[in-house]
Write a structure and sequence with these properties.
30% strand; alpha+beta
Length: 244
């Protein structure tokens, strides 16, 4: 199955009309959690919007996808036995790490933590998008977007190793640098550094979004550049890699 995913580069997997076995299509629902944590004069508003697969127990593939999405969304170090268990663990972690231990440490300060997940289907693939934003003190808040793509037939998460040959993977980093230079008016990695990039960090990331004609590599603030550069996306067409 792994080698067949390489056909994504030619967009054939996205338009496949059938599979070796019929996938169970997910039945989606939105679970909303809105709570206020208070301690020693500080408040933290926690707002979660998690898209769950209600019929995850109907197939091993959907069960694996649901389990992975719970782990990613609630950032649990080990798989939780249930959505409720993961939620309770996440709230405990926020209460432990964000709220002040002693009165007056961060008196009368309001924090905010929010996360939302969305699921979309594209023929044989399921894409989960998780967006986060938070303010827990400091000069500014933070925000991130992460993507996870799964095979509906088997439930495994697709990685760059599934999508590219070794030869293509070797060219990806160079191609990404070239595209960033073109977009930001730089001639090389050194000039990208002058514009706020971290040249040593630039390369293909596992945080990507699959489109019909391209793969989009997505970088959050601080991944490859300073916060002021914001979120950065680098699309690479399937044909760009095969043409070289």
């Amino acid at each position: 199955m792994k080698k067949s995913v390489l056909l994504l580069a030619a967009a054939t997997l996205l338009t496949a009309s059938s599979c070796s076995r019929r996938e169970v299509r997910p039945d989606l629902d939105l679970v909303t959690i809105d709570t206020l944590l208070t301690r020693n004069g500080a408040e933290c508003r926690v707002d979660f919007r998690f898209t769950t697969i209600r019929n995850a127990d109907k197939s091993p593939a959907l069960g694996a996808i649901e389990s992975a999405n719970i782990r990613y969304f609630f950032e649990t170090p080990v798989p939780a036995r249930s959505l409720r268990e993961a939620l309770e663990a996440a709230i405990r972690e926020i209460d432990t790490t964000c709220m002040p231990d002693r009165p007056g440490v961060v008196a009368n300060h309001a924090y905010e933590i929010s996360a939302e997940s969305a699921i979309s289907l594209r023929d044989t693939l399921l894409l989960c998008t998780i967006t986060r934003s938070s303010y827990t003190g400091g000069a500014h808040g933070s925000y991130t977007t992460e993507y996870h793509t799964y095979s509906l037939a088997d439930g495994y998460e697709i990685t760059t190793a599934d999508l590219f040959t070794g030869e293509q993977a070797e060219r990806l980093d160079t191609l990404i640098v070239e595209k960033l230079c073109t977009k930001y008016g730089a001639r090389n990695r050194e000039e990208l550094a002058d514009r706020g990039f971290f040249p040593e960090e630039i390369g293909a990331t596992e945080n990507f979004r699959i489109e019909a004609d391209s793969i989009v590599f997505c970088y959050n603030p601080y991944d490859i550049a300073c916060y002021a550069m914001g979120a950065i996306e680098v699309p690479v067409g399937w044909e760009e890699l095969s043409a070289r």
